[in-house]
Amino acid sequence: MSSSLSDVEDQSASTDACFYYIPSTTDNDQIIHNSYPESNFYVIKNTQQLSSFPSSIMTVSRPGNARTLFTIVPSMPPDTMINTNVWKEKHESFMNESSMSEMKTETNPSTTTRARVTVPSTNVKSTSEKKDKPEFVVRTYYPDSNAPLGVSVSKFSKNHIVSSQQRLLIKGGRVVNDDGTTLADVFVEEGIIKQIGLNLVVPGGTKTIDATGKLVMPGGIDTHTHFELPFMGTKSVDDFLSGTRAAIAGGTTTILDFVIPAKEQSLLEAYAQWRERADAKVCCDYGLHVAITTWNDQVAQDMEKLTKEKGVNSFKVFMAYKGVFMLQDDEIFQVFSKCRELGAIAMVHAENGSVISELEKEMSQLGITGPEGHLLSRPEKLEAEATNRAITIADQTRCPLYVVHVMSKTAADKVTEARLKGQIVFGEPIAASLGIDGSQYFHTCWRHAAAHVMSPPLRNDVTTGPYLMDLLANGTLSATGTDHCTFNANQKALGKDDFRKIPNGVNGVEDRLAVIWTKGVETGKLDVNQFVAVTSSNAARIFNIYPKKGRIAVGSDGDCIIWDPAATKTISASTHHQACDFNIFEGFHCHGLPIVTIVAGKIAYENGQLSAIQGSGKYLETPCFAEYVYQKLYKREQLREQQMKQQKIEREPYTGEVIDINKATSEADSKAKPKGQINTSSGEPTTAATAGFHSRPATRAGGRNLLDSSFTLSGTYCETRSERSVEVFR
């Protein structure tokens, strides 16, 4: 069957194989949106092979044409190699309307048993379908090339037939990358961008999206999410299904989540747990960072396995959450050293956890138990101090550092200072720190205030967001995430009497792009290319998935969005796709929105309607030694070795006397013994004289006379009251 048949041919082609259709539970929804149904077609050489399928699988045939019918054929028999022959055969000769719900098979009158079958399509008429167009049967005889008719062998194998629903042409838009903008069409096939340019020649049946007057950009990459995270006695409500669906609705097509092991849990065990949670649910591609919550030799070995076998290139340490996740400075040093050895990126949650713990106690003693206590116990200086300390440790280990959720101006300044000195440090502000401020903690409604509790906290300074946006614009801060970790009101209520027990976390995965566009592009701080850089391209480079992600280019993944700069909406929990019952951006008026989100070459969101498929996303390996991160470090390490060798001084070895430490210590101890203590060497009581001090008579009370002088120029001399002549004047 050709993927590029004409309208006439695609009604008349026949096949020497049985296409067995298995509809999914979401098939009807997909059909309504005239998109790709989540379907599987299994190629069977003859009717006898039908018995290998379970009888419970539904088989149907539907009217339509090949442009709306075909999808991947995952299991073509390896020996299907016969001559090509395509002919027209009328619908009436082998089927009728009353048998629409049954699989149609017919054996050819030849020596070889061959099956033919009506290929299923939608029950809803597509835009290219005419009312009088008959239901059709497709026959295809595969030639020796094993390629479908009319398609080059280099693009297809005998095991796959390309669906028209897997071909997409985005026409008339302005293609925006981080390094430039151009007017061009984009052709996506099998999830990969195959052509970019004007007047493209594409196969027939390709679905076309009119993007005239719109921007075509890489899908967003959220560098910081926490889906299904067990935390503070509960679990975040957005799982990998609702979380990635919400991400897609907001224009994000890749998320990077965090594996956070329990204190004594192995990294590999925790990694396996996260994969199990995510793989069956994700609607877009995802990668994983791994947190280090304890340090020992086994953790170091697990880090090595994760980088070499599991595709992990980033490890996070906590300087906060004392007694739960927090590491000490020497442990952080070891983690950073191991990251550099493996070619990974060190990540840090920067807050001084020890001081915070003491300030929390102080707030409690003062009777401050509400959400405002969270902000008051985590002042901005403690974020800045920890950020500077982490940068210093990273500098000493020569390890690249990624500072997550930069929430304050002073912490951002520490990143700025380090980058000005040439250190490889990346800063990540989040949607929350860019879009709102910490005045919310003083709201009179407890639920409202508690909904904003996160760590580090939002800063009670309205200039913080614009300041961080300026640093994104000048390149000081690099990428943006959300720290999306959502809890409902009844979960936040765990801390109704003690702010220390309020689960930390806010939303943002759906709102990030719209908030940054509104606060950045609409204010003139960012241009469209910088917007792409800070929402996708920079993250792709840092975590070594560029240009597979983060770019509209031939060979890149077909993850892209069509952005309408003129579109507007007001954010509300009543309309968002996130699972939480509160939105920290409630009432925020957005100007500029994604109107189409394309994931792996398929429309997953269009004009407010989600059609994302559960489990369609894939785990994304992030290789170590990212060139964008380590290219400078390679050369620096070489130069450092040379400089160290140059500073080494060649000397003659020391041949003099070396003190006996044990003997010297014994002598010092004997001199320090108080008067009257037994001298262990002679058995005699130790006196001031024998201890090397001047001998003085005691006072009448038996104590040392502090008024007597022990000064002498030579020898031993001591004045006593009895020897001193005193004249008393009356």
UniProtKB/TrEMBL annotation:
Record's keyword terms, sorted: Hydrolase, Metal-binding, Zinc
Gene3D superfamilies: Metal-dependent hydrolases (3.20.20.140), Urease, subunit C, domain 1 (2.30.40.10)
Recorded superkingdom: Eukaryota
Subunit and partners: Homotetramer.
Residues with N6-carboxylysine modification: 316
A cellular-component GO term for this protein: cytosol
Domain Amidohydrolase-related span(s) in chain numbering: 215-603
Catalytic activity from the UniProt record: 5,6-dihydrouracil + H2O = 3-(carbamoylamino)propanoate + H(+)
Protein name listed in UniProt: dihydropyrimidinase
MF-aspect GO terms: dihydropyrimidinase activity; metal ion binding
Organism, as annotated: Rotaria sordida
Coiled coil: none
Cross-referenced InterPro entries: Amidohydro-rel (IPR006680), Hydantoinase/dihydroPyrase (IPR011778), Metal-dep_hydrolase_composite (IPR011059), Metal_Hydrolase (IPR032466), Metallo-dep_Hydrolases_sf (IPR050378)
PTM comment: Carbamylation allows a single lysine to coordinate two divalent metal cations.
Cross-referenced Pfam families: Amidohydro_1
Required cofactor names: Zn(2+)
